[in-house]
Write a structure and sequence with these properties.
Elements lengths: L1 H15 L4 H10 L4 H4 L3 H13 L7 H7 L6 H46 L1 H13 L1
């Protein structure tokens, strides 16, 4: 759980907060097609954050890789496979979190617009509610 919240938090801080906004813009100027996308995409950045954090908090142990991939003889290959899996897991978790946050943002925006309409023009809202009830 610590690793999951760590990768989600770091990725969100890098790709979606004001703290890194200037950095993201600078990276977009340096290389818009690579670094610009990388530092703005939670799924892309989540992959690399997953790999880097796995160096400190290994989620997949080498013994687990041994049991699934007996044909891999080199420890470096096993470590690389473990890091690749953890990067992929982190990327997937960040994609899910991003989809969920986008959905919640859309829902809250719709609620805000409805509330704004109700406050700004209550007579029009009452007319709409009455016509909906008649249908």
């Amino acid at each position: 759980m610590i690793w999951i919240f760590t990768v989600l938090g770091i990725t969100h801080i890098i790709t979606g907060t004001k703290i890194f906004e200037r950095f993201r813009l600078a990276m977009g100027v340096v290389s818009p097609n690579f670094f610009g996308v990388l530092f703005s995409c939670p799924t892309c950045m989540g992959f690399w954050v997953g790999i880097i954090t796995s160096l400190f908090i290994p989620v997949i142990q080498i013994s687990e890789i041994n049991s699934y991939f007996d044909f891999l003889n080199s420890d470096w290959v096993k470590i690389s496979v473990a890091l690749l899996f953890q990067g992929a897991i982190s990327s997937c978790l960040n994609w899910i979190a991003n989809v969920l946050m986008t959905y919640l943002d859309v829902i809250s925006t719709q609620v805000e617009l409805k509330n704004e309409l109700l406050v700004s023009n209550p007579l029009e809202v009452a007319k709409q509610l009455l016509t909906e009830d008649q249908n």
